[in-house]
Design the sequence.
């Protein structure tokens, strides 16, 4: 039985509306509907869903030494270990703000270098070779900087099949980004993969564009988080509340240079479909778009 069927059955038996379930989980209702329809709930989200429904799932863990623990006992052990780890981390010297700023400045320079190299990609083999070397250095530096700043680094390298690229041909993207250089870089790359690009430099203009065009006009929205007039969170909330469900359910992907978990959680809570860290890994972005078709 599929996850959606199980949850629908439990909601029906307990007389709980899925919109109410979404609120209990900290999700926007339309986001939960899409996740159920696409069978794309993560294990963590499924756990939150079961907790919100008051359903208890007990598992049995058997370790290589033969020891057996229930999921509750295993969880309690992990919590104890986490408490010890947190105390050790608190005791460790924290990096002073001067060095943090230096690392952030270095990251900004790396992002700009990668961006300019992306624009030069089609200028010849030397540009391609330079981009490959720069991307390798950039990836290594990102790991180092993220670790030093206490952030989680995720390697977003992902292979994209040719048929996936073909499926994106002619699809229209609303690129919402207040930084002109970032818009130029992303537009150049996405146009090169056959997508149609329209731009907005803040959330208010993005909302207007979605409302003015016919439902389904935009296949995707790439939404920056921090923008003037109206940020990406507010714009997403307003789009999700539009009366026309086709407009309201347009796939929205968050773009941000700030990878802290609070931003990721908030992005999903307001109804965004995915969360990507800038500078965006193009292979990962294209894969993300194909999954949302």
Sequence:
């Amino acid at each position: 039985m599929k996850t959606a069927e199980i949850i629908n059955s439990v909601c029906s038996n307990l007389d709980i509306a899925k919109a109410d379930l979404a609120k209990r989980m900290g999700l926007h209702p339309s986001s939960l509907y899409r996740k159920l329809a696409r069978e794309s709930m993560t294990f963590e989200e499924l756990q939150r869903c079961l907790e919100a429904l008051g359903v208890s799932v007990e598992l049995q863990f058997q370790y290589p030494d033969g020891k057996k623990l229930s999921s509750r006992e295993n969880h309690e052990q992990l919590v104890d270990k986490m408490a010890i780890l947190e105390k050790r981390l608190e005791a460790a010297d924290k990096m002073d703000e001067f060095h943090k700023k230096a690392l952030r400045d270095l990251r900004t320079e790396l992002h700009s270098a990668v961006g300019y190299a992306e624009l030069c990609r089609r200028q010849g083999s030397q540009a391609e070779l330079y981009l490959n070397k720069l991307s390798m250095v950039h990836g290594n530096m990102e790991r180092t900087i993220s670790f030093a700043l206490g952030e989680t680094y995720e390697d977003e390298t992902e292979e994209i099949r040719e048929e996936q690229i073909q499926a994106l041909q002619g699809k229209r993207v609303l690129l919402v980004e207040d930084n002109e250089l970032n818009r130029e870089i992303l537009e150049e790359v996405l146009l090169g993969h056959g997508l149609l690009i329209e731009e907005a430099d803040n959330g208010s203009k993005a909302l207007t564009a979605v409302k003015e065009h016919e439902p389904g006009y935009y296949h995707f929205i790439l939404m920056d988080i921090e923008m003037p007039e109206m940020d990406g969170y507010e714009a997403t909330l307003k789009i999700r509340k539009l009366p026309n469900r086709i407009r309201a359910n347009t796939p929205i992907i968050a773009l941000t240079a700030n990878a802290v978990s609070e931003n990721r959680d908030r992005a999903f809570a307001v109804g965004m479909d995915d969360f990507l860290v800038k500078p965006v890994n193009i292979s990962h972005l294209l894969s993300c778009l194909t999954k949302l078709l």
Observations:
- The first strand starts at residue 60 and ends at 62.
- Residues 125-148 form the longest helix (24 residues).
